[in-house]
Amino acid sequence: MLIVQQFQKRSFIIPSLISSGLSYLSKDIRLADKMEDGELHFPKTEFEKSQNTSRPLFQRPEPNYPGHVPLYNFEKLLMFLGSSIGAFVNPTNNNFIVSLGESTAFPWVLNRLRTQMLNDPSGRQILKERPHMTSKSLNLDELKNYPDNSLGKSYFLWLEREGVSPDTRVPVKYITDPELAFVFQRYRECHDFYHTITGLPIVREGEIALKLFEFMNLGIPMTGLGALFAPIPIKSSQRRRLLSVYYPWAVKNGTICKPLINVYWEKIMKKDIDVLRSELGIEKPPDMRELRKKARSKKKQVA
Amino acid sequence: MFQVIRRFATSVSNVADIVIIGGGPAGLTLGTALKNSPVTKHLKIHLVEGGKIIEPLNSFLETPPPNYLNRVVSLTPSTIGFLDSIGAWSHFNQERTQSYDDIVTYDGVSGARMNFEHPDIATMVETTNIQAGLLSRLNELNSQQEVKLVIQEDTKVTSIAKDSITQWPTLKLSNGDSLTCRLLVGCDGYNSPVRHFAGIESRGWSYNRWGVVATFKFADTEFRFPTGWQRFLPTGPLALLPLPNGYTSMVWSTTPELAEMLLSLDETEFLSMVNAGTRLSTEELSMIYDLAKSKSPDLLEQIQWRLNLFAGKLKPADEENFPLQVSEIVTGSRARFPLKLSHADTYVEDRVALVGDAAHTTHPLAGQGLNMGQEDVKSLVGALERATSRGLDIGNSLALEPYFSERWPQNHVLLGVMDKIHKIYSTDFAPLVAARSFGVDVLNSLGPIKDFMVGRISGNSKR
Amino acid sequence: MIRHSRNLIKLQSVRYASTKGKENSATENLRLGYLSDAQNAYMDRVIRVDQAGELGANFIYNGQYLALSHKRPDLKPILKHMWEQEIHHHNTFNNLQVERRVRPSLLTPLWKVGAMGLGIATGLMGKEAAMACTEAVETVIGGHYNQQLRVLTNQFHVDVVNEETGVNTPTVPEEIKDMQKLVSQFRDEELEHLDTAVEHDAHGARPYWLLTEAIKLTCRGAIWTAERV
């Protein structure tokens, strides 16, 4: 009886459950696991000592090409969220568009583009040679002497009219595979040529129309997002013009024309631009700057 | 003079206990096993083969050809155990066999891989080596026994009919003889005349695929343990199986157009194509196929470009996930054969039994076709032994039926499984690819289940 | 505080073991290192799990003896012999646990009940089932002891610095060598039990594969848990 009274009533189940659950985190268990796996105190051979296999737990993977910044998936998601909001609110800041483009350029999209390039002889040549467009590689000084109505001359005139230069393209940083990064870089660099061949200016309205054209032709998600959301904050008269004139044009031409990613622009600079347009299957849309000037003068008249 | 008399006399029918039609691995194994077994060795057995086999097979063992032949099969440990038990394995040219411990199968679209490791999981042996070893053992048994197995080579069977009185199968041979037997065993391949004679239906379908075979030598860049590789492309699996001394036998099951294209390439292009097939993505491969079909002159350059790009992206640790590149081809080893699935409705009829390809044909993706035939032989010999020791008429369905009931369901399951694997891997539809890759990844990490699969395939499972 | 005193005890035992039977001139100038935290943690784990394991084996044989002794008195000697060896193993590890002040497995009551239950159940299923159970358990234990032996042999070096020359020659201390011998001997005895069980128709059990694989799985799970809890 006395012994029974001396026996203390203690809770047993809950504390032992907790301690057995938490014990997994205990240092002893982790150390003993490491011993079992042969990671500690194991005499290393000379070869193994020369291998530096120990890595800290969270280490960024190696860059695959110069300028590559490997991102984790959650970082890419954050970049997408930030850049999509930023591009909507402030589309003139190039960084947002660039980041939005790279964070939405999923591997399967770029893979599809690369397959398109692989199946075309000129596309294959571009993939093999990996040309980069700079003002030097395009020989801007010679372009002004090219025949009128050639692609080179039109490009030069367009550059002058809009006041831009081919050297301002931001290099691709966040795409993992080097070949797919090149494909995206090529798209960025050819963007000015798409302007030239369609004649669209670099005003907001022009960029939006060109985005839809690119989306129908290339399928890059950023262009689709741009075409969908960018017309929301612009002036209603511009939006009306966009939706009635340029969007139908973009849909029609983007779908039926040949994949523009395969065009080796640098090699066809001397070609007549109208011939090129008919070969590719593009009709020139109404000149946007003219339409805008007319609309402005009409408003002035009315006022 | 003897012959003149014979010509004018009514042809005397030879009578045998068992006539085996077909001198391929199945027929020779059956003959050897029957002669080896103390229960059945007294039976009078004739083996009829349409081609000349004795001289070529004997010379194969005496003066082996310098190059490995392109018909090579993968033998399971169970088959080798059986061949050993009938005393034939020791007669094989062992230096020309290659046993390997590792099989790697990987998905052509997603790269999901499965690794099977087991000591001596399979052994590669040339078909001629098998036949030669069996023939050698048969000659040895014949020299030791009174009742000899008669091999009639270069003799075609012109007709098979039922004898009017006894109902026993009677064959008319191309050399004028006629042969009556108690039991007729058809080991005569897919278009088995014996099966047609017995009126047995064989059901199945053509896979609309051709197996392209060739023998290569791996590039001598690094040491690898002999491994069997199989890449499941959407058009069909590409398998590289190890042979001795760094050689490898390739079986590429692919569509008829691609098979024709592969055979039309010259040797260097073919080598590059095979290297591309083991490494490059399906989009790159379809670009390469289109270039090859249109006979583009820069095919080699384009393949080399993509291979170099691939090699540049490959991390050193991942190099062992792909087979070595092939650098030489054994000239004249390129060939192709059509792939089809077929399964006979029954393996036994009154006084008729079917073994091997006459009973079933399958896709080579798991290397089971010949092994199934060997298991058939083992089972049939067991049934005949039991029948003989009980004094039964061996041609009677009662004696033969245990063979059918033992083998048919097992063969059917195996044929079905291989058919499903072929179908699952014949697509590059993204959701299916994701599902099968997930399944493969899960299965690859479940050791016990893989061991079970290996045990079933190699016939080693504990009963 | 407790860790410090434990290390002291370990250090003393290391030093004591090292000077056992060695010549004085050699040992006077040697400074022996401590076993590291990881090595101590692993030793604790070894003793804990082996104590629990031998307790389990003890109770399994106990249960089998109980279940089979009435129906199969011819098996009594062989079961008794194996049981007694397990009792000896269990006692050895009990002593080691107390000596080194290792926490025993918290789930010991569970192991007692489980092992007894397994012994009785397989005993009631018959001789072949009991032998198959023994075979399964001893197979797992054989592999388990082998793994421990591997670690004890390869990874239990301590720094032994010669005070004069300053040269460090990592050596395995004597007590660890004794531990290796113990584990090796016990492993051999367990494998002997396995052979005995196979001799006595373990493969005749029905359902063989299911029974052995289920018992192996349970044993592995129990070993994993006893190592940690």
TrEMBL record, chain B:
GO terms for cellular component: extrinsic component of mitochondrial inner membrane. Its EC number is 1.14.15.45, 1.14.15.46. Its cofactor is FAD. It catalyses: a 2-methoxy-6-(all-trans-polyprenyl)phenol + 2 reduced [2Fe-2S]-[ferredoxin] + O2 + 2 H(+) = a 2-methoxy-6-(all-trans-polyprenyl)benzene-1,4-diol + 2 oxidized [2Fe-2S]-[ferredoxin] + H2O; a 4-hydroxy-3-(all-trans-polyprenyl)benzoate + 2 reduced [2Fe-2S]-[ferredoxin] + O2 + 2 H(+) = a 3,4-dihydroxy-5-(all-trans-polyprenyl)benzoate + 2 oxidized [2Fe-2S]-[ferredoxin] + H2O. GO terms for molecular function: 2-methoxy-6-polyprenolphenol 4-hydroxylase activity; 4-hydroxy-3-all-trans-polyprenylbenzoate oxygenase activity; FAD binding; oxidoreductase activity, acting on paired donors, with incorporation or reduction of molecular oxygen, reduced flavin or flavoprotein as one donor, and incorporation of one atom of oxygen. Residues 17-215, 335-385 form the FAD-binding domain. It is a peripheral membrane protein. InterPro entries: FAD-bd, FAD/NAD-bd_sf, Ubi_Hdrlase_CS, UbiH/COQ6, UbiH/COQ6_monooxygenase, UbQ_mOase_COQ6. It is found in: Mitochondrion inner membrane. Its main location: mitochondrion. Pfam families: FAD_binding_3. Pathway: Cofactor biosynthesis; ubiquinone biosynthesis. Keywords: FAD, Flavoprotein, Membrane, Mitochondrion, Mitochondrion inner membrane, Monooxygenase, Oxidoreductase, Ubiquinone, Ubiquinone biosynthesis. FAD-dependent monooxygenase required for two non-consecutive steps during ubiquinone biosynthesis. Required for the C5-ring hydroxylation during ubiquinone biosynthesis by catalyzing the hydroxylation of 4-hydroxy-3-(all-trans-polyprenyl)benzoic acid to 3,4-dihydroxy-5-(all-trans-polyprenyl)benzoic acid. Also acts downstream of coq4, for the C1-hydroxylation during ubiquinone biosynthesis by catalyzing the hydroxylation of 2-methoxy-6-(all-trans-polyprenyl)phenol to 2-methoxy-6-(all-trans-polyprenyl)benzene-1,4-diol. Component of a multi-subunit COQ enzyme complex, composed of at least COQ3, COQ4, COQ5, COQ6, COQ7 and COQ9. Belongs to the UbiH/COQ6 family. This is Ubiquinone biosynthesis monooxygenase COQ6, mitochondrial. It comes from Komagataella phaffii (strain GS115 / ATCC 20864). The lineage of its organism: Eukaryota, Fungi, Dikarya, Ascomycota, Saccharomycotina.
Automatic annotation (TrEMBL), chain C:
Its main location: mitochondrion. Keywords: Iron, Membrane, Metal-binding, Mitochondrion, Mitochondrion inner membrane, Monooxygenase, Oxidoreductase, Ubiquinone, Ubiquinone biosynthesis. It is an enzyme of class 1 (oxidoreductase). GO terms for cellular component: extrinsic component of mitochondrial inner membrane. Its EC number is 1.14.99.60. Fe cation 1 binds at residues 54, 86, 89, 190. Fe cation 2 binds at residues 86, 138, 190, 193. GO terms for molecular function: 3-demethoxyubiquinol 3-hydroxylase activity; 3-demethoxyubiquinone 3-hydroxylase (NADH) activity; metal ion binding. Its cofactor is Fe cation. It holds the Pfam family COQ7. It catalyses: a 5-methoxy-2-methyl-3-(all-trans-polyprenyl)benzene-1,4-diol + AH2 + O2 = a 3-demethylubiquinol + A + H2O. Binds 2 iron ions per subunit. It is a peripheral membrane protein. It is found in: Mitochondrion inner membrane. GO terms for biological process: ubiquinone biosynthetic process. InterPro entries: Ferritin-like_SF (IPR009078), Ubq_synth_Coq7 (IPR011566). Pathway: Cofactor biosynthesis; ubiquinone biosynthesis. Catalyzes the hydroxylation of 2-polyprenyl-3-methyl-6-methoxy-1,4-benzoquinol (DMQH2) during ubiquinone biosynthesis. Has also a structural role in the COQ enzyme complex, stabilizing other COQ polypeptides. Component of a multi-subunit COQ enzyme complex, composed of at least COQ3, COQ4, COQ5, COQ6, COQ7 and COQ9. Belongs to the COQ7 family. This is 5-demethoxyubiquinone hydroxylase, mitochondrial.
